[in-house]
């Protein structure tokens, strides 16, 4: 039987959204009247079809059932967790790399109190949660030993716990995860999609931890060597479905799960653009979407001679585009500037 996918599109915002929902001309995303949609794209491996929500009743019976089931999932209100609020979008995940070799800020915060102080600044600037990492996942990076990784992050995590700053732990290793959990971290962010360490899922279950399911093709050392997909959008959607089934099979009963399609992790420019431009497909999985686009290479590829070292302009452009598709969590380096841009953008949308 042919598999179909439902992507919501043609979004509306603010008072315009509320009016359209009230008139039943649009449907709210996650029961949030501030953002709604009035069209869907029905995709398969062979083709796609764009229709208005009014036209759903004209679909063949089985397809109509499938679409309505997806819309029910898409409309469902999301419960808050890990200091993330899904009523006030977007949530900001501030990036704190305590590494000497991360792609954009390696060596900047890994000495003395620089990392801790930067985390405080990120939180003060508007981060809902700080993503702390001690192992670089840049293209071509190699694995480091757990002892080295913990030595980079342990002291900072202890200090952040005392300050009650909510922390997400960016690690692939179950040993690091368990140590972090004992220091009060709120979220596990494993870029390997829980593939790197087969004990990770057990730790998540043991402590009933919220976690991110991240997509990567290959591993950091090889991921950018000619990545290939049959259909990048649908392949990654299917990957998430399988990962959710696997988590349930392993005894994960909670829904405190986030999905991240992994921009730049085993994707070329075309793959990244496809994912970002049609990111709203992933709403039909029923979990919050996390996107990490900050300072990524796709910005350089698109901007060409206009590329700058910090890539703030390209970061903000891509963030505002995905914000208009209801993405719930944004992982960013420049929290103050991005928060400012979003505030201005949202205020303009209201009018």
Give the quaternary arrangement of the chains: single chain
Radius of gyration from CA coordinates: 20 Å
- Number of DSSP E strands: 12
Cα distance spanning the termini: 46 Å
Kindly provide the name of the CATH class of the largest domain: Alpha Beta
CATH architecture of the largest domain: Alpha-Beta Barrel
Spell out the CATH superfamily of the largest domain: Dihydropteroate synthase-like
Low-pLDDT segments, ≥5 res: none
* Total tally of structural domains: 2
Label the structural class: alpha/beta
Outline, from the CA principal axes? Answer: globular
Mean pLDDT: 93
What do we call the CATH topology of the largest domain?
A: TIM Barrel
The count of helical stretches stands at 11
Write out the strand line-up for the largest beta sheet, numbering strands in chain order. 10-9-8-7-6-5-12-11
SSE series: EHEEEHEHEHEHEHEHEHEHHEH
Largest β sheet strand count, sense and barrel closure: 8 strands, parallel
Determine the strand fraction and express it as a percent band. 15-25%
The amount of helix comes to 25-40%
Features:
single chain, 351 residues, alpha/beta, TIM Barrel, 8-stranded parallel beta sheet, 4-stranded antiparallel beta sheet, 37% helix
Mind explaining what this structure looks like?
By secondary structure, this protein is α/β, with parallel strands linked by helices. It folds into two domains: 71 residues, no CATH class; 260 residues, Dihydropteroate synthase-like (TIM Barrel, Alpha-Beta Barrel). Helices cover 37% and strands 18% of the residues. The chain has eleven helices and twelve strands. The strands form two sheets. It has an eight-stranded parallel sheet with strand order 10-9-8-7-6-5-12-11, covered by helices on one side. Strands 1, 2, 3 and 4 form a four-stranded antiparallel sheet that branches. Strand 9, helix 7 and strand 10 form a beta-alpha-beta unit. Helix 4 runs parallel beside helix 5, helix 5 packs parallel to helix 6 and helix 10 packs across helix 11. The radius of gyration is 20 Å and the shape is globular. The protein starts with a strand and ends with a helix. The model has no long low-confidence stretch (mean pLDDT 93).
